[in-house]
């Protein structure tokens, strides 16, 4: 069993020559020679909480038990979770043993959460798989949600076909220049397109819901509209409509706000304007999308996490 010492050793063996994410650093994460993500082999957690700020079919009234991993294989200069996602400087993190982590997750499942979400898991796939295996050993079978930035290898997604129930990827860019300048990932468009095509191949455009209206299987693609980058957003939507299907569920987000790191940025230093978001929504409708979620323009006031608190999304 993966919970055993022998199983855990096997699970983490790939981290000794790490090619988990598209960067393929070949770092030995058991040593001090860490790769781009600056992450070792343990469980470094920003927060475990019942998150009610997700799409209604994801969280419902009781929330999804989200596990927020620290660090990230992308370094978006505007990241709203910067307290835990940076790869340099101090971050808010909790080093946990697997049994301790699973105890926390079980407590939320006992309190009514039906799903477990893995947030920013692309660089910690062995750790994520170990958590899933440990929960199953304990007789737990929640809905597992892969909440990713989209910077995943297609082979990774192929390996998750019988593991993950719901894919919840971001699709950030179709513009390689923006991907380079904003997230240090110039190859993001080509990588993310392949990964999301594989998700679509596995799940299709339909989602499955339980008796409470909560998703149990499927794909929902998120896109955060950035100020001043409306053409990029339109290109993202065109890719989904033309190369996947306009039947795909889309979560079109207006919740961008400038964090301290980009407060003085010439483009990112302001919130999204109403006319910008409305232009993207019009493109959404023009392309024939008819399933999904749009946000109120007041959303930036409701999605400002503070990972220094026990629950980052609640006072």
Can you tell me about this structure?
The protein is α/β, with parallel strands linked by helices and 315 residues long. It has a single domain, classed as Aldolase class I (TIM Barrel), CATH 3.20.20.70. 32% of the residues lie in helices and 17% in strands. The protein has helices spanning 5-12, 56-59, 82-85, 98-110, 125-137, 154-159, 176-183, 188-203, 230-244, 274-286; strands at residues 43-51, 64-69, 94-96, 115-119, 143-148, 166-169, 208-209, 215-224, 249-253, 292-294. Strands 1, 2, 3, 4, 5, 6, 7, 8, 9 and 10 form a ten-stranded mixed beta sheet that branches. Helix 4 packs across helix 5 (125-137) and helix 9 runs parallel beside helix 10. The longest helix has 16 residues, at 188-203. Residues 1-6 have low confidence and may be disordered.
């Amino acid at each position: 069993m993966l919970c055993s010492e022998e199983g855990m050793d096997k699970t983490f063996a790939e981290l000794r020559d790490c090619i988990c994410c598209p960067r393929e650093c070949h770092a030995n994460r058991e040593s001090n020679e860490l790769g781009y993500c600056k992450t070792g082999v343990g469980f470094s957690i920003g927060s475990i909480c019942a998150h009610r700020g997700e799409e209604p079919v994801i969280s419902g009234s009781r929330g999804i038990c989200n596990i927020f991993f620290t660090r990230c294989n992308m370094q978006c200069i505007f990241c709203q979770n910067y307290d835990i996602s940076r790869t340099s400087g101090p971050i808010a993190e909790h080093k946990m043993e697997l049994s301790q982590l699973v105890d926390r997750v079980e407590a939320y499942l006992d309190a009514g959460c039906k799903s477990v979400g893995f947030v920013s898991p692309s660089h910690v796939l062995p750790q994520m798989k170990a958590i899933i295996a440990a929960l199953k050993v304990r007789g737990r079978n929640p809905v597992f949600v892969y909440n990713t930035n989209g910077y995943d290898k297609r082979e990774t997604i192929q390996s998750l076909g019988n593991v993950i129930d719901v894919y919840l990827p971001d699709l950030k860019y179709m513009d390689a220049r923006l991907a380079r300048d904003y997230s240090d990932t110039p190859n993001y468009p080509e990588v993310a397109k392949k990964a999301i095509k594989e998700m679509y191949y596995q799940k299709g455009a339909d989602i499955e819901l339980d008796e409470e209206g909560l998703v149990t299987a499927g794909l929902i693609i998120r896109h955060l509209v950035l100020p001043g980058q409306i053409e990029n957003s339109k290109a993202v939507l065109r890719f989904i409509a033309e190369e996947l299907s306009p039947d795909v569920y889309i979560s079109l987000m207006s919740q961008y706000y400038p964090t301290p790191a980009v407060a003085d940025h010439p483009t990112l230093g302001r919130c999204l304007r109403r006319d910008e978001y409305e232009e993207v929504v019009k493109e959404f409708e023009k392309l024939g999308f008819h399933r999904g979620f749009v946000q109120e323009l007041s959303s930036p006031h409701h999605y400002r996490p503070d990972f220094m608190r026990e629950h980052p999304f609640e006072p």
